[in-house]
Every structure is written in structure tokens, then in C-alpha cells.
Amino acid sequence: MTQNVFAENYADRAAGFRPSPVRSVWDVSTAPGMISLAGGNPDLHGLPLEQLALAAQRLIGEQGLDSLQYGSGAGLPELREAVTAIMAYSGVQASADDVLITPGSQMGLELVTAMFCNPGDVILAEAPTYVGAISTFVGLEAEVCHVECDDDGLIPEELEARITHLKAEGRAVKFLYTIPNFNNPSGVRLAQDRRERIARICANAGVIVVEDDPYGLISFDGQVTPAIRSFDSNVIYLGSMSKIFSPGIRVGWVLAPADVRARLQLLSEAMVIHPSILSQYLALEYLTAFDWRATLARSIERYRERASALLESLSRSEGVLPAGSTWTKARGGFFVWATLPQGYSADELFELAVEEGVVFIPGSAFFADGSGSRSLRLSFSLESPEAIREGMRRLARASRRLTPRYELVSG
Amino acid sequence: MTQNVFAENYADRAAGFRPSPVRSVWDVSTAPGMISLAGGNPDLHGLPLEQLALAAQRLIGEQGLDSLQYGSGAGLPELREAVTAIMAYSGVQASADDVLITPGSQMGLELVTAMFCNPGDVILAEAPTYVGAISTFVGLEAEVCHVECDDDGLIPEELEARITHLKAEGRAVKFLYTIPNFNNPSGVRLAQDRRERIARICANAGVIVVEDDPYGLISFDGQVTPAIRSFDSNVIYLGSMSKIFSPGIRVGWVLAPADVRARLQLLSEAMVIHPSILSQYLALEYLTAFDWRATLARSIERYRERASALLESLSRSEGVLPAGSTWTKARGGFFVWATLPQGYSADELFELAVEEGVVFIPGSAFFADGSGSRSLRLSFSLESPEAIREGMRRLARASRRLTPRYELVSG
């Protein structure tokens, strides 16, 4: 009996936990000589590490009794204030009282999902969507329904039709989860004229909007599109320090109406007590004592060059991917989303690509329903333009070894 | 409709989230001049802050591209190894592979509870138990059943009888949650001869043991009792850096058999991706480059002096608490648990105590079933012996204003 004490006792939700495809690729991607177009890691080379190191020294040497001690469940008041200034760049007018600091925005999404979703409830999400969000939703036994997108992002008519259809079936549609800016994995930015419309569709249908915006400021043309939250103060907005500063410190936030924020804080305290105080102080220091916007602008310029290298390679006349493949044109963020013609498998391409020395994430990771098997996410955030070009040459060699499976094509 | 978009959409579990009584007392306890016997904060004055500050400087200045970047979901391999050495002091032989680093052991408990408990499942816990654990259990809609304790901790016969009774009722008893060493809030240490017996009772009944051990090393006599985990490798063990180093960095761990650890890691990745890398490196540095045992020994000596000051005050002939009150004799940890005679209310004493300038946590916070109304948790970890003696004089004044409510006594 002792042997099976665990097997007998797992909760129903345990069945949903599967290894993350991104994390599995992680191991492969760190092999010597491998070029990784897989990870979503920001490039940290532009950070003023020496000055940050001195700041960390002060935070412990002079404030250690505070920065190493327990703190507020809502987060440092000064940091809650500082992140409102970040959101202002996206047209969001927010009160620091409505901000909850979380140990990364992944935890923010966990809190929101746990707060609103019973098992079997429906969450709407872009097709494709963030793999980590799918993990959160599946872990809480919610059902993900994807909504069709085009080059301008989520299609409002599709969203409205999907809500109507699901409600007619008696389903509890709790919220729309959307990454409107330079979506992970598609790289697409939701057109400005669709934002207010999507907010209105959801409000009219009694569906909450959860706007996840880690990439909003990573815009290659310098234009920051107003957040959906700027059109409707009931939108729950998730922010992150991961792409504009550091993912390793795990600092993100949730902006929500006061009553919702208060409830989320209670749940956060039950889960983690509070986020790392040291991390919060370091984030605060970075936002207030450094010219972080200038540093970010230089990083964005690097991301832009890398995106160009990737897109130029994809467009070469000889072709990196099989003829008939399509891909998104990243204007910000970290990703390009490519789709192979009918009959091709991105999983097969992945196996060949690893042999050639380049990795990406196969597209099915970004769908909860098993689709995406012809697509791939190509990340350009971490490798140099030269490495990206070499990676694309390797991908081209892998592509040429790929055989279409016409027998699998029905149409 | 927009106004009610949240009210209409809360999940069932949202009803269970109540403000933590400890957090509410927090606000009162920070008032000027207030003496706090409420918090469970460790005393950080003994930490080598200047050297730690230099370590933090190096971690960012020389390793910033690593310490500020994404990392492993399981935690830093070196830290997973380092914490096995901490557990060895409690007689636990563990492999680093079976360790999952978490952003605080609160998150470890969240992961374990989510992994094993469906709504309505039963968790056994000491009477009284950690208020934060109750929040976690209630948040996941598990039901807490308290098991009677005496001065030697959890009573094995009571545990066995309770399991038998609950199983006869058809209840799913998933795990025993226990803080065997210097229990929060009771301060009691589980007798060594009960440990193996409790492990066997649970194993025979197919009930998992979750051993939460933040205070194991905070032993005033220097004796560290072997952990329950040392008698049964199926025990899930929760460890924490909060009381032996820093709570603010949020670093804890779960030790669990390999298959369980792997599943918990997937859930952890879905919730937080990974704990702060900077925090993990700082914890690793503290455990490997500092004589942390000597620093801890000095802190323990301070805690011992404070516990003595508190216990001596309680034992004065004129009495701090009403005649007939009882209290535990802390031999480690941070807490003394006192119980007033029949007819007295600790909530009423709390109100009077605040007026007199001293705070504690009323006992009902530490029960899921509404009991504990005559008890109070007195923490001695943070105030000086002088402040504790003054606090106890204030508590004595509050006690003298307390009126027994004989009309409420039935027996």
C-alpha cells in the first residue's frame, strides 16, 4: 500500500499536467553548437550590470533588514506606483491602489484564472496563444477555445460569433485571454480599431477581458498602440518586467478594479505570501534611478535587426521553408510564426532541424486543441543576426530533407 | 451589465478567500509605539549584511546575464544540492534530484495541495495549525480536520481514530499536514517516539504525510529531532530559507519522491515558471560561502533569551493572564500558545491589548473550524527582551480589564 500512496491520491487536475514542449526543447537547445530560435529570452547584454550591481549592494548593505524581511502582500507601494508610469505609455490611466505585484505575470494569470474559472469553464484565446497560458488553464481544468486571427490579430466577428455559439450551448464563458501586442507566438499586433470593439463585444456579453502585455513597448517603429484596458477600465491587465528588464527576478503585476485586486491579493498571499522583496526593490531601482527607456530603445534596435535577418532569410528566392509556406511579419516583440503548406509536418521538420543544428518550437504547443501541426515559432530575440542567418541556412537544409505526406491531405 | 462582469463570473472557490487575520493585525502592529508579539518575522540583525551586499554585487556584476535571465523550473542544481545538506541535520537522506526549489515553502504547500486535493477532500492538521496553511487549503476547497495535540505534539491515537472515523464516513483523507518542530502557533515539538509511529499510521491508511519544517533548526537546546521524513521516504518534506536566512527573498523547497517531484515541477512552471534566480543565487551563496550555522546559533541564542523573558513574565506570581490560564513552554521556534480559562475571550483581550499598546494573534486564526477563541499566539522572535517584558506588562493591564462571560459557559 505504501508504494501507491501517491498514485491513489492524486487530484483530478493532476491528469492535465503535461511536460511543457517549450521546456523539453530547452534541453535540446542548450547542446553545444546549437542555434536556438526556440526560447523567448530577452537579450540582457544592454543592461547596465555594473551600476545595477552597486544598486543591489546598497539594497542589502544599507536596507537589508527591510529588503530581506517579510513585506506587503500587495507589493512595495513605490513599485506599485512606478508600474503605473509604464502602463501610461500604453494609454492606461491606473491607480497604484489597483496594482498587485506578483512573482512574474505568469502568477498573475494563475491568480486571475483561479479566481474566475471553475473546472469546465471556457476561456477564449487567440489561435495560436502563449503555451504557458495553456498550462495554467489546463492546470485549473478550464477549457480553452481558440478564436481565429488574421494579420491584424484577433477577428472581432469571429470572437462575437464564438461567444454567441458557446453561450447557446450553455457554456460558461469566463474570459478572453489576449496578447494584443506582438503576440506570443504569432508576433502579430492587434489593429488599433479592433481594440475598442473587442472590449465592447466582451462587455456586452458579460465576458471579462484579460490583457497580457509583456511586449507592448517592444515596438520596432516606436509606436505603442493603446492597450485594450485604455478603452475599458474593467479590463484586467497583466504587466511584466521580464522583457523590459529581467525575467530572472520574477516581477510582474496585475491591474484590476479595486474589489478584484483585493481578492486577488488574498489568493496571492495564500499562494506565495508576497513576491521577493529584493526583486521588487531592484525592479524599483531600475525604473526610477536608471534611464531604462534608453536602454530598452537600444535593445529594441537589436531585436529589430534580428527580426530583419530572420525575415530576409525567409524571403530569399531559394527559400528556407517549402514553397507555399507563409509567415507573419514581426513589427515588434520576439517572434515570427511560420506555417508550412498542406501535407507538411512541423514536428518532422523539428527532428530534422535538430540534426542540422537549429531548434524552434513546433506549433502544436500553442494550441489547446491539437492543431498547429504545420506551424512553427521562430524566435529572434537572443541570437545575433549572423547566428540567425546561419540558423536559417540550417533550417533550409532541414526543409529540403522534408517530404510532404500527400496521403494525409484530404482536400 | 458591465458593472457586474466580475460578480457574475467568480469561481466557486472565490467564496473561500477571507482576509488573513495575521495580515489584518499587521496594520495595527506597525502603529508607532506598539509592541508586536504578533508577527512571525525572524530577527535579521545577525546577518552579515555587508558581505552579503558584496556577494549580491558580484552576482549581478559578474553573473548578471545568468542571474537576471530565465532559468530552470526545478531550481539551480547547486542550490538543490545545498539544501540536502540542511536536511541532513534533521536525519534526512535526500537526493538533489528529488528537490524542487519554490518561491517560498508557502508555494510548496500550494503545489502539494493542488496536486492531491479535489474540492471536499480532507486534510488532517494539528489543532492549532499554521494560519497560512489554512488559507491555502480553503483556497483549494479542501476541508481541514484538526487532530488533538498535547505537550508532546500530535497524539498518534487521536490521529488513527480520526482517520478511521473519516474513512468510515466515506471521506477522502488525502494527507496529514504537520509542523512537528516548534509548531506555528503552538510552539510544541513532536516527541521523537511519536514520529515513526505517525509515519506508520499514515502509510498503513494510505494517507500522505506533508511535513512542514521551517523551525527544525531553531532549537534552544541544540538538539535537532530527526524529521518524520527520516523514517519514511514517502513523506513529502517542505523546507524554507525564511527562518534560517531571509523570508524576503522567497526561497523554499519541496522534497518528494522522483515522480511526485516531477509532477510538482510541471505545476510550478505553470504557476510561476521558476523562483527568482537572483534569490536562489543569494541563498546558495549564503549556504556555501558563509558560516551560516554560526550566525544561526547566535540568532537562536537571542530567540532563547526572548522566549525566557516571555515565559518568565507569564509565570510571575501576580500573573499576566487571568488565573487558570495555561501556556506552552517553547523550547525552540518563535511562539508561545496561551489559553485563557473558560468564559474568557481572546478577541476581547486583543481589543484591550491594542488599547494598551501590545498586539498578538487571536487563536481562532489557527483553526479552520471556528475554535480557538480562548487562545492567543505570542511571538517572541522580533522584540528585545526588554520590549517583551514591557509588552507583557501591557498585556497584564489589558487582562485585568477583561471580564469573564460566565453566561456563555455551558459546563
Automatic annotation (TrEMBL), chains A, B:
<dbReference type="InterPro" id="IPR015424">
    <property type="entry name" value="PyrdxlP-dep_Trfase"/>
</dbReference>
<dbReference type="InterPro" id="IPR015422">
    <property type="entry name" value="PyrdxlP-dep_Trfase_small"/>
</dbReference>
<keyword id="KW-0808">Transferase</keyword>
<dbReference type="InterPro" id="IPR015421">
    <property type="entry name" value="PyrdxlP-dep_Trfase_major"/>
</dbReference>
<feature type="domain" description="Aminotransferase class I/classII large">
    <location>
        <begin position="34"/>
        <end position="395"/>
    </location>
</feature>
<dbReference type="InterPro" id="IPR050859">
    <property type="entry name" value="Class-I_PLP-dep_aminotransf"/>
</dbReference>
<keyword id="KW-0663">Pyridoxal phosphate</keyword>
<dbReference type="InterPro" id="IPR004839">
    <property type="entry name" value="Aminotransferase_I/II_large"/>
</dbReference>
<protein>
    <submittedName>
        <fullName>PLP-dependent aminotransferase family protein</fullName>
    </submittedName>
</protein>
<keyword id="KW-0032">Aminotransferase</keyword>
<dbReference type="Pfam" id="PF00155">
    <property type="entry name" value="Aminotran_1_2"/>
</dbReference>
<dbReference type="GO" id="GO:0008483">
    <property type="term" value="F:transaminase activity"/>
</dbReference>
